[in-house]
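Record type: ASSEMBLY
Status: queued
Input:
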Amino acid sequence: MLSTLLRFHSVHISYATATIYPDSVHLKVSYYKDDFTKAVDNWYEGKNSQFTPEQVKDAEAKYFKEYCRMWSGQNFTHQLIQSSCSRTDDATSLIFEAGYRSDIPIKQLTIDHRVICKEYNDQMNIMTVTGIGDTRNIIFTQSKPTAVISPN
Amino acid sequence: MDLFATFFKIGLTHIVEGYDHLLFLLALIIVTKETKALLSVISAFTIAHSTTLILSALGIISLPPELTESLIALSIVYVALENIIRPDPKGRWIVAGSFGLIHGAGFSGHLTDILKGMLQGGNIWYPLIGFNVGIEAGQLIVIAITLPLLALVRKYNKEEVFVHEISRVIAAVGAVLLVWRAFGINS
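Status: finished
Output:
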């Protein structure tokens, strides 16, 4: 219990950059490793405790794909493809890189980012979006997990 | 909520819920009798720890978390013991500033990563200013709670006993934290 107290952090935040191109998006997002792991554990209801390291990576990727989605126009098929997941040197952050590709030029992009929002009602997923004519900061929260962007 | 407000909240929470910063601040404040001295102590702490936070975000300094966490615990022990050994310590702003550098470098790697990301996106000033204003506000809350209590114990001539007993408790907690962190017991 003391160990948990000493490792406690009360800031629940992630930061992402999304670069929008005419028919694709590049996303890089950094989560608190402890918070993300807790969210994956909850999603698997603890059944992942016996997973091998490879299965853990797979579980993390599946959770990420389920709770961070984007789609263009009315095409709700989310195609956010994760390209990598890395840990920072001090192992406090998990960094995902992912890409989204649309069959047609992106006129309206919907981003749904609710990673860790079930675990912490004060989770803030901040995203800086560029390539839309200007730079925009969006804060996704439990009560506001979705944003719609119309690139110029 | 915009970026300034978000990071203001994070800065405020960092102080108000960060038990190690609270212990350090409390130990500094309880022996500071004059407003001028109090202001210089708080300002020195804020400036110092903002400096190292910015340097960390810029990637200019990078200290191992085990080291900074242990030094933060050591700072708590040092200030609390000084309260007992030197009842009227002078130049406390130097101590606050020196250890403030360590406290600023002790932010979690994740928070520093986030600030680095914002810096790369040319997006750093609102978060950084909001965060530091939040920290200031957190310190003002601590002062607002502590000073009336100190005034009360002074009124009943119990200040020395109060300062000594509180400092002993702070030193003891700091010592436990120091051992815990230095030997990696919490990892």
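Annotation: The radius of gyration of chain A is 16 Å.
Annotation: Chain A has three helices and nine strands.
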